[in-house]
Amino acid sequence: MKCPVGETGGPAGWIIGEATPLRSTVLFNPQSTPRTGMYLLVETPEGCALGVVERIYTGNLLIQDRIRDAEDLQSLSQYPDFKNRNYTYGSVQWVSLLDPLVRSGTVRTPSMPPPPAGEVYAAGTSVLKQALTSGSGRGWVRLGTLASNSSVEFSINVNRLTRHLAILAVTGGGKSNTVCVLAHRIVGGLSGTMVIFDIHGEYAGASSPIAPGRTRVKQAKINPLALSFSELRRLARIPENAHNQERILRQAYAQLMEDYRKGKLAGQISSATDYLNLLKKYARSNAGQKSGESLNGLLNRIQDIEDYYLDVLDPMAPISLDKYVEPGMLNIIDLSDVDEYGADAVVSHYLRRLLEERKRWRITGGEKGYPVPIITVVEEAHVLIPREEDTLTRYWAGRIAREGRKFGVGLVLVSQRPKNVDQDVLSQTNNKIILRIVEPQDQRYVQAASEQLSEDLMSLLPGLNPGEAIVIGSMTRIPAMVKIDLCPVKTGGADIDVVSEWARYSSSRRDVQDMIDELA
Fold it and tell me: Interior CA angle at 487 toward 426 and 373, to 5°?
């Protein structure tokens, strides 16, 4: 396929230096206006190839790095032909031959480099629309537009989200807006099923439903009778070396659950306190005569569960998973009133059950289990899936990262501190939406976990504007710099206008004082 260059005018530049099939240096035409993220076309021995500009440099032939004298610099800048000696060049990654991309949406990287001095052309709007949308249909949702060409819509393949996604940015970089856009279009547009574990109540406190008619905000509740032993142990905060306390609790838990399954506890558990009192009772009956100190320590820890998590444990909460995480809905679990231990217990509990129930659905041929695929969103992933601490959420997120694709469970990690996220889990997110990241260690960590994030693309991260992102992975045809749409719903992720709040408070105080003075 010949490069369609009719709508782009003259060449945008020429290949210089040594080129590879995947990367070239381009000297840009002085009449062109290159920018990072724009797409170029070039003829190769295999046909037309599409590439993306990853880095741009500019200079002047008269001004070299060795100049150290300001007067010399001023003299050179007054040279009559000074501006004509300016030059611009950049690095380009050739992402695919154009023909298979346009015909069937198939990415096929060139195996032969473009020729030296070969002309490159700016990819026109019609070419980019064909390259990004050809062959797409139901299952693709709009994320935004190309940052280099606002006329070209950019969409992602939702079916590939079961290969998992990381949304990464500094605070205020646009993570919450990105999640909101995805939820609005996946649930509202495709009748999809999502659950957002909302650490700070950003989505629960949205100005209106993110997916109208399909949004369900849930308090962070776990039916204690659905707890696994590991979750119960986590809530009790039993230390790793407290083996006797763990043994007694395990035996008490096993006996309580056995009696519950046999119907012996009917009518005895109507509150979290009832459940915990029964647990204490079974602990006492299972403790040996020499377990006095361990038993007392365990009883105190069970009492701590009541003190800290009485509002999380609720025997009235549905045991049936699909009654709490409703299929076909955006389920927002509000964790804003729960500490990190409670959040870890709640998030891991539902990640575990969703994976187990989706497996059961597949194994039983749809007779039992959770009936639909689901996308799970874990906010503050650096807290719940930390790099240097074992948490239950880290364990179950890792299981979903490895196994979820086969059973229709997608994992979305959201974090402003990617270097603190477990690298094994992060590296298994095949897709990335990377907004502005400034901290060099965070950048390196993300690059180490991303096969498609080149050094040049990584160098763009600190300079991205709010809402701009580098999008890579199997959910998109080609790497792209994208301007993400604004979500139609305002979430609680925006900065507080502290000055206005101070002013309102001060004004209200003055009004009250004026009333007091009038009555005096």
Answer: 50
